[in-house]
Amino acid sequence: MSPVDINVPHPHLPPLTEVLPAEPLLLMGAGPVPVPAEVARAGGLVINHLGDSMNMVVRHIKALARYAFQTTDEHIIGVSGPASAAMEMAVGNLLWPGRRVLVLRNGWFSGRFAEMAEGVGAEVVVAQVPEGQPITAELAERELAQSSFDVVTVVQGETSCGVWTAELPEIVAQARAHGALSVVDTVCTLTTMPLKKDQWGIDVAFTGAQKGLSSLPGVSLIAFSDRAWEAVEKRPAPRPHWCLDALRAHNFWGHHHYHYTAPVSGLLALHEALRLICDEGLEHRFRRHLHSSLALQAGIEGLGLELATPLPWRLNSVVAIKVPEGVDDAQARRYMSNMFKVEIAGAFGLRIVRIGQMGEQARAPNLFRVLHALGVALAREGAKVDLSGGMAGLESHLAQHAEDVR
Ligand SMILES: Cc1ncc(COP(=O)(O)O)c(C=O)c1O
Question: Least enclosed by CB within 10 Å: which of 6, 164, 248, 347?
Answer without folding.
Answer: 6
